[in-house]
Automatic annotation (TrEMBL):
InterPro entries with a match to the protein in the record: Homeodomain-like_sf, HTH-type_TetR-like_transc_reg, HTH_TetR
GO molecular function: DNA binding
Name of this chain's protein: TetR/AcrR family transcriptional regulator
Pfam families documented for this protein: TetR_N (PF00440)
Superkingdom of origin: Bacteria
Gene3D superfamilies for this protein: Tetracycline Repressor, domain 2
Organism listed in the record: Dyadobacter frigoris
Residue span(s) of domain HTH tetR-type: 2-62
DNA-binding feature ranges: 25-44
Keywords recorded for this protein, A-Z: DNA-binding
Amino acid sequence: MYNTKIKILNASVRLFNENGIDSVRLQQIADESEMSVGNLAYHYKSKDVLIEAVYERVFDEFNEIFRHYLKRPDLADFDIQISIYYTFFSRNRFYLSEFFKANNSTAPHYLQWQDCTAKMLLQLRSRLQFMVRKNELLPEKEPGQYELLAEQIWMSLVFFIPKSNMIGQHYDEISYKKNIWNLLRPYFGPDGLEEFRALIVPVLF
């Protein structure tokens, strides 16, 4: 039963990404899942119940990303987390589209999104502070410099894929990651630049 539910959720996300939630019917999800509508309804009795299950998985995956934080004290650790963000946002493209269709205060699961956003920003700020302490990043030239950089990185992590889709620009994991590292490059000190050239440049640039 568990594998069947996973199959249904995966099929739902694929269709939601392609068509948007409102346009997808249960029959389409059943067809994509290679089962009858009756069998689908046995596992999820309505489309609303299925949508709720999809959102629940989205936020479970989102929160799992936060556990991949500073497992190693080097730039490669952040590169791994960027890859995980890419996988998450490319796999769940429908969510941001659905979120911004509605007024923010009434959008589905708005509070969960706010919570995840706050966690992302907190981790990014903490990571930048850690990189300053390790002399990977230069000290701030003015107060709030790295607060602003954390917000810029957050914007790129979240919106690079929908922006690329909107303007018809090709993207892949490499371009996604390069975009993030290019935001950081101007702030590297000598130690950070050396580590960047040793660990990141050979695989990305």
